[in-house]
Amino acid sequence: VQLQASGGGLGQPGGSLRLSCAASGTTFGINFMAWYRQPPGQRRELVASTTIGGDTNYIDSVKGRFTISRDNKKNTMYLQMNSLKPEDTAVYYCNVERLSVTYWGQGTQVTVSS
Question: pLDDT by residue (tens digit) across 67-79?
Fold first, then answer.
């Protein structure tokens, strides 16, 4: 599985950005998809996840602001980020699990600043 993340950039506080993660290769059997982020000088953390059954989970700091979704026909996962805050600044990584193997995208920088 190859993952290509896109959509990062500069966002203003209170604004929105949408990240995309396109999967290619053997995508059949992907049962878990997630977005992680790594703020400057900090550890990588799980931001949002979704399962093949449609269950979603979010860290408390993004609940009500971020939405994870997937388009199975396009093999693409999204992270809609609204009401951005400076503390959302980080490198964002997409992550999937297929048959107990984990795959990572290359990361996309999100900077929230006025």
Answer: 999 998 999 999 9
